[in-house]
């Protein structure tokens, strides 16, 4: 593994790992009242684009990290839609 791959792998691991505590807390408590629907929607689309970018580059650290983050973000987004009142809260 060269230095570029090492830096990319470390960045992918750290950014994905930093997302895990918030995701775990959301799953555990099912409290998504502090989650902005608009922000999470935009974030999820951005992560999906990063995943596509990683696939196009054949960059596995980017693909794996963003596949994990996309899965978690979609789950939190689904929880926001399921557990939030229908009054249009964000």
Q: What topology does this entry show?
A:
Blueprint: H1 3-29, H2 37-57, H3 60-83
Helix pairs in contact: 1-3, 2-3
Describe this entry's structure for a reader.
With 90 residues, this protein is mainly α. The chain has one domain (3-83): Monooxygenase, CATH 1.20.1280. It has 3 helices and no strands. The chain is elongated and about 50 Å long.
Which tags fit this structure?
80% helix; Monooxygenase; mainly alpha; 90 residues
N-to-C CA distance: 43 Å
Which CATH-level-2 architecture? Up-down Bundle
CATH topology (fold) name = Monooxygenase
Query: In DSSP terms, counting alpha (H) and pi (I) runs of 4 or more, how many helices?
Result: 3
Given helix and strand content, the structural type is mainly alpha
**Low-pLDDT sequence parts:** none
Order of helices and strands: HHH
Helix fraction? over 70%
What portion of the residues fall into strands of 2 or more residues? under 5%
Taking the sheet with the most strands, its summary is:
none
Mean pLDDT: 90
Total strand segments: 0
CATH class: Mainly Alpha
Domain tally:
1
Summarize the structure.
With 90 residues, the chain is mostly helical.
């Amino acid at each position: 593994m060269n230095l570029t791959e090492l830096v990319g792998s470390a960045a992918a691991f750290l950014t994905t790992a930093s997302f895990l505590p918030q995701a775990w807390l959301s799953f555990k408590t099912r409290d998504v009242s502090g989650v902005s629907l608009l922000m999470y929607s935009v974030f999820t689309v951005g992560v999906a684009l990063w995943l596509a970018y990683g696939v196009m580059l054949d960059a596995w650290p980017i693909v794996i990290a963003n596949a994990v983050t996309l899965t978690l973000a979609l789950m939190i987004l689904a929880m926001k839609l399921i557990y939030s009142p229908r009054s249009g809260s964000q």
